[in-house]
């Protein structure tokens, strides 16, 4: 199988909303990224978080096993520092191997859930 | 007409939700892909599905006729193996001819339907 | 100002839903494209519509004035042939000048409106 | 850190809806852009707005500090001229340094909020 994807990805419009409606945790408001590693080796990922009014935080390190998908909720990134609720952020991700990254949001702050998804920006 | 598209496509963030509301099948929750073949020959498509915790499955084979659109619900991919409800997945698709691929979701798990769409990642 | 955009665009996942709720015409269900022409000349656009089970139809011709935006509802494409409600379609668009094309949907078939938007695929 | 992004961005499908529901300002209808500057220098941004029936307006000037995110609501662009409610628009943005731009909409004109997001078109 071909190596699919890019080494560098970014998206600008992250936001973890505070209010949630509906069953937990399935309809809990969240921003997340899905990372696909089609290669036959594990991918090492570094994530940097950028804010409006303070210095960037990172890297957050994680691995994606060979030929696996990994979904990461930004709520779950806690080392070196948790992402605060209601804070806007951007994300830059780099990988040791080509991967495909998708960004999505479920916002359940009003009665109906709203989902949004977009391919991240493949920077190289 | 020019040959439009790419041979390799991927997206990371697939998910078939379990719960549905509204009339069946129009508002049934689903993830799907739309494949456009503008060429004057039939395109042969192979789809590989990647998971979080098990080996990839594939290829699922299908054809898109010359100068036709084909929409495929992931719920309908059953050979070699059905995609389980509530399971997250990624998708890698390759084609014998350039095609254009779009990913979309209708999630009707709460009272209002939510739709999401994004261009897949054109890998080459 | 630089010439911004591409000559060839496509998207695969078009669909004009039948049912609508809410005030007409603002919340009428529709698929549409927005075309931005930043150049100092008028752009001539040709649109071809592809279907699942019949031959492509086109070209639909339209112009986008110099340094203007034009939004087109697929409901309004009637020459050479109207697009039928509830029919899935794909779209290939070519332009005499570089333009930027965005596809969007408002689906009001259930009680809440759902919007979806994605950049079209820049084919060249 | 690598310089991430592009100098020129555009999107075609802007629209500031008039009606809003829910708490202000969190659920106020709006279109906005998020701009990520990963560089160690401030980025100078110029935005040009295109309309359906009148000449483009611009440039709107703003800065994005080194290694910061900046979100801009189009409602807040007032110099040289405010963007009118219910008016459709397109946007061309150029930057002195590579940046990543994402476009999003929250439309609360009916009872449930709908969110939409897409990567802008990276024009160079």
Class inferred from helices and paired strands of chain A: mainly beta
Kindly report the name of the CATH homologous superfamily of chain A: TM1070-like
Q: From the structure provided, what is the oligomeric state, counting identical versus distinct chains?
A: homotetramer
- What ranges of chain A have pLDDT less than 50 throughout 5 or more consecutive residues? 20-28, 107-116
Largest interface: A-B, 32 and 34 residues
Distance between the termini of chain A: 21 Å
Q: What's the count of strands of chain A?
A: 8
What is the string of helix and strand elements of chain A?
EEEEEEEE
CATH topology label of chain A: Hypothetical Protein Tm1070, Chain: A
Rounded mean pLDDT of chain A is: 78
Question: What is the architecture of chain A at the second tier of CATH?
Answer: Sandwich
**β-sheet strand percentage of chain A:** over 45%
Tell me roughly what share of residues is in helical segments of chain A. under 10%
Shape of chain A: elongated
DSSP helix count of chain A? 0
Main beta-sheet annotation of chain A: 8 strands, antiparallel
Number of domains of chain A: 1
- Taking Cα atoms only, what radius of gyration of chain A do you get, to the nearest Å? 15 Å
Specify the CATH class of chain A.
Answer: Mainly Beta
